[in-house]
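User: Design a sequence. Structure:
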């Protein structure tokens, strides 16, 4: 393993970048330094997840590690451009009305805060699966029905109104209780042309400005949804269709927080598995123009996600023999790293890094260049604490909150209070709704059973019962026809 002083990461990229190391080994520090290198090469940076410490917004602060920069300069020689830098940063805050404060950090022209709402018809079944896990056929039918029925300028208030008027029998679905109802409450779902619906195509064009998703005010159950929605729109709607450039990096810290699956039968872990699969798909097609760069402590927690898809494998101190084996065993078999070199990884200093580039042997970086922007330190406090100490400038969003409150105060779409089944109207619905709801509760309760007894006792049915049975059949038929649409 050769030692080098001055290291320039692989360029151009054809794969992803992954950073491993124990707590305190400096892996996030090194991740940021290398991402900054690619920023200077013309990549658009999408900082999607700041980890438990919320490090994403730290892009707004120039590095205060002047001692480290001087030591680095002694190591590599006089630098043309010295150290700390202030970048253009867009801080993005998804709109959850009860979570957001009345003021957000902003210091023009370099640092701006941007509210984010979502056009409800842009939401797909895949997005919904990041919240509720498995999406049942009934849930797919209901969401497709909402999207097809409501006009483009409808809001969450119209969705709720439609649900109360036409879809009461589906109120027990996870889709309603855990997705629609809370998102409508928080007023994030809006019509097509609302001013805070983000145009990711235009955002991607501005490579100079770093996109930071601020998740401090996103409820935990919706973090996958917001990240997934942004990346799906960016990757599948724009990058894969050649509508934007091919130089994008999505950056994640502590990837194990959303890549580790413990119990695949648990609903929460179904959500995690759905999101893991989604990120894995993007990583697999990184050459299309969106590269995943992320760090994690233990590779065991993300095993199977990245093999063969990485351009840069960056290893910091890793005392665990099991972790070293997972990361390095195949590399050892391929003679790209030796057993002695693997042992060395267990005692590296925080300023050191072993890096394995695509198709090359391992090299040791004696002193990694510090990032040009600030990284979290134990005595710092959170982002807001540092912001108040350094800048203490804010933009007031109470006017925007009131505007959304007014938007949700009334519906934009008149819905007759009557029951429809596959286009047929029935004004006498009270008993019908109750019976169908009971039947659906029973069906949903047995969804996971492998063997369902379909034997029915033959009885004489009244005319009303026959009509009810026909209505149910029409609902099922219509649901099947619409289930796979908008996927």
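Assistant: Done.
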């Amino acid at each position: 393993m050769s030692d080098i002083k001055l290291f320039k990461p692989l360029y151009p990229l054809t794969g992803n970048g992954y950073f491993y190391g124990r707590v305190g080994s400096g892996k996030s520090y090194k991740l940021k330094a290398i991402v900054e290198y690619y920023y200077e090469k013309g990549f658009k940076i999408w900082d999607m997840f700041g980890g438990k410490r919320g490090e994403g917004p730290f892009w707004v602060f120039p590095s205060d590690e002047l001692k480290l920069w001087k030591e680095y300069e002694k190591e590599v020689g006089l630098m043309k451009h010295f150290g700390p830098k202030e970048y253009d940063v867009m801080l993005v805050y998804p709109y959850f009305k009860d979570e957001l404060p009345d003021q957000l950090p902003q210091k023009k022209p370099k640092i701006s805060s941007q509210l984010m709402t979502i056009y409800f018809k842009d939401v797909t079944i895949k997005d919904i699966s990041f919240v509720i896990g498995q999406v049942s056929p009934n849930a797919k039918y209901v969401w497709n029905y909402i999207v097809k029925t409501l006009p483009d300028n409808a809001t969450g208030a119209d969705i709720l109104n439609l649900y109360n008027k036409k879809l009461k029998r589906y109120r027990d679905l996870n889709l309603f209780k855990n997705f629609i109802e809370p998102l409508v409450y928080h007023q994030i779902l809006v019509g097509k042309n609302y001013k805070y619906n983000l145009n990711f195509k235009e955002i991607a064009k501005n490579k100079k400005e770093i996109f930071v998703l601020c998740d401090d005010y996103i409820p935990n159950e919706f973090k996958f949804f917001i990240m997934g929605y942004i990346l799906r729109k960016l990757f599948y709607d724009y990058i894969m269709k050649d509508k934007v450039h091919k130089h994008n990096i999505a950056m994640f810290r502590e990837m194990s927080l959303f890549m580790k699956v413990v119990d695949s039968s648990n609903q929460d872990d179904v959500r995690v598995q759905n999101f893991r699969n989604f990120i894995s798909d993007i990583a697999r097609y990184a050459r299309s123009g969106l590269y995943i760069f992320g760090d994690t402590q233990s590779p065991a927690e993300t095993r199977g996600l990245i093999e063969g898809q990485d351009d840069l494998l960056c290893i910091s101190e890793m005392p665990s023999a099991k972790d070293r084996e997972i990361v390095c065993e195949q590399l050892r078999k391929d003679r790209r790293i030796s057993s002695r070199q693997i042992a060395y990884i267990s005692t590296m200093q925080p300023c050191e890094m072993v890096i394995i580039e695509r198709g090359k042997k391992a090299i040791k970086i004696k002193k990694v260049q510090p990032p040009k922007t600030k990284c979290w330190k134990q005595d710092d406090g959170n982002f807001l604490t540092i912001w108040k100490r350094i800048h203490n400038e804010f933009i007031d969003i109470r006017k925007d909150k009131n505007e959304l409150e007014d938007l949700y105060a009334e519906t934009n779409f008149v819905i007759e209070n009557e029951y429809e089944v596959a286009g047929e109207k029935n004004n006498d619905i009270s008993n019908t709704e109750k019976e169908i709801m009971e039947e659906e509760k029973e069906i949903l309760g047995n969804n996971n059973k492998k063997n369902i007894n379909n034997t029915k006792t033959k009885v004489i049915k009244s005319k009303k019962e026959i009509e009810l049975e026909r209505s149910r059949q029409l609902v099922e038929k219509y649901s099947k026809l619409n289930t796979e649409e908008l996927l």
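The chain has two domains: 2-117+196-380, 121-189+407-482. Confidence is low (pLDDT under 50) at residues 418-437, 447-460, 481-487.
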